[in-house]
Amino acid sequence: MNGLTWETLSAWLAMGGYGLYVWGSLGMCAAVFACELLSLRAQRHALANVDAEAAGGAAQTPARRPVLTQQEQDA
């Protein structure tokens, strides 16, 4: 168990010589996650623009409208 204890921050960051792989993989995962979020946001904005154009160019048209059940429509 001696390999799991680090006495300094630099030793912990080095991770026994595997720090480059560990921190590099974590960095790549964070970068892919950020790119995925940005991509989803861009797709959402594009869909909102398409919906706004289809509604006649209304500026405040919501991207999605709820579908009402028959009971809600009758009320």
**Average pLDDT rating:** 82
What is the helix/strand order? HHH
Query: Tally of extended strands?
Result: 0
The structural class is mainly alpha
N→C terminal distance: 68 Å
Shape: elongated
Q: Strand share of the residues? A: under 5%
The helix fraction, in percent, is 55-70%
Which value, in Å, is the CA radius of gyration? 25 Å
Low-confidence blocks of residues = none
Q: Please, how many helices?
A: 3
Main sheet characteristics:
none
Structure description:
By secondary structure, the protein is mostly helical. The chain has a domain at 15-53. Helix content is 63%, strand content 0%. The protein has three helices and no strands. The chain has helices at 9-14, 19-54, 70-74.
Outline of this structure?
63% of the residues lie in helices and 0% in strands. It has 75 residues and is mainly α. It has a domain at 15-53.
Structure characteristics:
elongated; 75 residues; 3 helices; 0% strand; 63% helix; mainly alpha
SSE topology sketch:
Layout: H1 9-14, H2 19-54, H3 70-74
